[in-house]
Each structure stands twice: as structure tokens, then as C-alpha cells.
Amino acid sequence: MSDDLLMMLLADARLPVAGHTQSGQLEAAVRSGLTADQVPVFMRSRLASVVRVEAGTAVVALHRLRAGLPLEPVLDAWAARTPAAPMRDTSRTLGRALLRLVRRLFPDSTHVAEVAGLKRPCRPLVLAAAAATGGIAPTSLGRLVAYDDLQTVASASLKLLPLDPLDATSWVHDLLPEAERLATGVAPLTEPHHIPAPSAPQLDLWAQTHAHTTRRLFSA
Amino acid sequence: MPEQTTRNTPSRLILTESERESARSNEPTRHGLTSERADSTPSEAARGLRIGVCGPVGTGKSSLIALLCRELSADLEIGVVTNDIYTDEDARFLRSAGVLDPARIRAVETGACPHTAIRDDVTANLIAVEELEEEFAPLDVVLVESGGDNLTATFSPALVDTQIFLIDVAGGGDVARKGGPGIERADLLVVNKTDLAPYVGVDPVAMVSDAGSVREGRPVIALSRTDPASVEALVTWVRSELTRHRGGALVPADPGPMAPHFHAVGTSHTHEHDHQHA
């Protein structure tokens, strides 16, 4: 079976993994003045920074799961490249959410069991376990991480800003080539120190600010 | 790792009344349930009872939870999860009510999707419940408050073991008659704020009677926090659900999605038939 259908399942917004609680820092950005027409730039900035880290982490974890190499160095490399504590916390919580589902889908997977045995694995590691079990290729895994982030922000933007949903989906569509570039860029990575280490201090600041607000629609 | 298993759910979510009864009588075997990680996870009956509280905005969900904490926290270990539209409004109300250790009250963000968070993707709420249960083990009861939604929103049986649906006299005397899954089939229906009835021109006795006629014998409590007998009735119901849960006899039953208010040929109903059917 091709990996297409499993990819579609994992990319579906209806997946019960708490995706509806996330805005990818968009809520904090809007609160600090980001406007509707800046959302595509915001999405592109994420692809250039935090999403590259997440996608690179997922791909390296996939390689190491298949090669039987330990995953702790991947988790450490991801944490070192994710300086904002609330971002790490969010990814770990979403990892826990995804793990609930992945354990149900692949109860006999040794890859899933290995990731479940880690202390608070981040979301890319859980996705990598699903990919390793379901035969998803590294490039496809990178596409999945990038696409999910685009749709997370697009979907949240409709709750936060006065937008036409057709516009939001057009933005996702227009950024697909960028997502593809990201996926092919990280696909060959195999070592934790290969994981890209870009910096996006404004996203980090927004994540930290958001974690301390008392009135918010989204968890992060 | 400390994470608990995914909550076991019935293979089919909607049980008929006879299936509920048969499931209860077959205790402790639990209807199509399997355990993923029996080694590390307490059985359903060993963990605390998870009670959902839902109903339209302003019917008194937070107050009811504060009331339960006040009445029960002397002898039961309690945790609370709230889902507000703007997260932690309800959590802050409960913390300021001083009825429970603030650390035991968690707010869950729903991304402006309160219905989704208790129904089609309960993940964020389940994680909050599990974290409370891990941190304050052993908890006897976890109360999950839905974000105020509408008459069609009910909890998934994957999230709570039993659920209370709230309406109030100030919402209008005809609300109970209009029905809906929560009003008709929640484990308990509370008609709240009966002390306000004279001021809003509603007859609470008729309202409770309307509710009773659509609920086929399921319990209804007319509640006012100024009426000790009604508070006692609520507390008694909660304790009896806890006893059934601990005995393995409580099987989560789904009030179901919104169903049209219809009457099959040959069935009877007891309320006045003076309203339009959809």
C-alpha cells in the first residue's frame, strides 16, 4: 500500500489529537498587532524557523528508529533548538496527545513502544514512530510536519481575525512549494547535529508572553 | 512513563436503555472494553469518577461545581477541569470561591471549540484529567465543566463516566419541553435557580414535570442553592454514582447527538402536545 492514505489520515484536521487547541503563536501575534494580511508572512516565517526544527527532528528520529539507534540524542537536539520553554511544553503535550492515538492505531509497533518509553517525547518523535511503523518516507514525513503547521495557523486565523476561509486556504496552497522545499531539504538528515538550528526570537517571545496571559482562546 | 492508557471506550457509543441495564447487571465485565496497558494503568473503577457538567451559558455550571466542592471536599478528594471560551475565567471563579486547592483546578483551552473539546476531540480534556489524577492521586472525583455551549452539546463517554445537564428557570419555562440530548438523556438533569422562578414568571413544578416526561424516568433535580433539601438531593445523587462507579456498575452512556423530537407510531407521551414539531 502506498503511504498516501496514512499520510492523509495523519494530516486530517479531524484527527483527535487536540489540534483545535493550537494557533502556532498566532493568537499572541494578533494580540501584539499582527494583521490579517500579514498571516501568510507569519506562516512563511514559521516554515523558515520552528517548523524546520520540528521537521528535521522528525526525519532524524525516523532514521534512527529504522537503524535501531537511540533517540535520546534527538530529543536533546530538539530541546536545544527550541529555547522557549512553553514551546517545548506544547510540543510535548501534543506528543502525548498524538501518542494516545498512535498507540491505538499501532498497538504492536516496537517503534511506538520505544518512543512511548521516552520521558515526555516531543510531537516530531511520535510522528516519526508512526512513520516508521506505517512505511512513510522521510520526505513525506517532512511534508506532513510542514503541512500540519500551515493548516494549524490558517485554521486558527479564522477564529482570530476577520477573514474569508477561502483566503486562508489559498495561503496554505500558495505556500505548498515552500513546504515541499523544506521537506526535501531535511529528508537526507540522519544525525541529531544535522537538525537545523534557525532562530526566531519573536516567535519565542510570543510563546512566552502567551503562556502568561489569563484570557486566551488557544493553548499556544 | 506516567501517562495513562487511552480511556477505553465502548465499541459503539450509543447504548440503548436495555443495553445499559444489561451492561450494569453483567458487572464488572465492561461492554466491549479492552485495556491497552493493563500493567501500568488502574482499572476504570480504581481511578476516580469523572463527572461532566454541561449546559447552556449562564445556567450555573461553575456555581454547581463550587457547591459540590463545598459539600464533598471534606471527605472526598476532588479535581476540577474547566473549559471556558476565554480559558481560565471559570477556573479563576472556582479558585476564588476558596472551596478547593487552586492547584486542583485546571483550565483547558478549546480554541473557541467548546463542543469539539467534549465531544469529537476530547484529547486536551483527557490529558488534563489524567494529569490531575496523577498529581493528586488518588482522586475520588474529577469534575469536568464544559464551556457554555448550546442545548445539543453533551460529553462523549470517552471523557466522562456520568454527566449532569443544567438548565435554569431564567432560561424560560419551555426549555425542558423543547428537549435535546442533554435534557432527555443526560444521567442527571438539573433545573437550576428555582428560587428565581417567581421573578421570571416560570412555574418550576411544571418545568420539572415537562422534563420528567421527556426523560423516561431518568432523574431530575430542581435545584436552588438556598434550598438545602435540593442540595442534599444533588449530593446524594453524586455519592450514589460514585458507589456505582466503584462497584464497576457504572457504564458511561451517551446521551447521543441532537435527535429530532419525534414520536414513533404507537408510542405515547405525556406532555401537552401544543407545540410545533421540527
Structure description:
Chain A has 220 residues and is mainly α. Chain A has 12 helices and no strands. Chain A has a single domain (4-10, 31-208), classed as Urease accessory protein UreF, CATH 1.10.4190. Chain A is globular, with a radius of gyration of 16 Å. Chain B has a domain at 42-163 and 223-246: Rossmann fold. Chain B is 33% helix and 12% strand. Chain B has 10 helices and 7 strands. A 7-stranded parallel sheet of chain B has the order 3-2-4-1-5-6-7, with helices on both faces. The model of chain B is unreliable at 1-41, 260-264 and 266-278 (pLDDT under 50). Chains A and B meet through helix 6 of A and helix 5 of B. Chain A: Keywords: Chaperone, Nickel insertion. Chain A: One of its GO terms (molecular function) is nickel cation binding.
Q: How much of the sequence of chain A is in beta strands? A: under 5%
Assembly state (oligomeric): heterodimer
The largest pleated sheet of chain A is described as: none
Strand segment count of chain B:
7
Overall form of chain B: globular
Main sheet specs of chain B? 7 strands, parallel
Task: Indicate the CATH topology of chain A.
Answer: Urease accessory protein UreF
Number of separate domains of chain A: 1
Shape of chain A: globular
Architecture (CATH level 2) name of chain A: Orthogonal Bundle
Q: How many strand segments of chain A?
A: 0
- Rg of chain A, Cα atoms, Å: 16 Å
State the order of secondary-structure elements of chain B, H for helix, E for strand.
HEHEHEHHEEHHEHHEH
- How many helices of chain B? The count is 10
Ranges of chain A where pLDDT stays below 50 over 5 or more residues in a row are none
Protein name (chain A): Urease accessory protein
Keywords (chain A): Chaperone, Nickel insertion
Organism (chain A): Nocardioides albus
InterPro entries (chain A): UreF (IPR002639), UreF_sf (IPR038277)
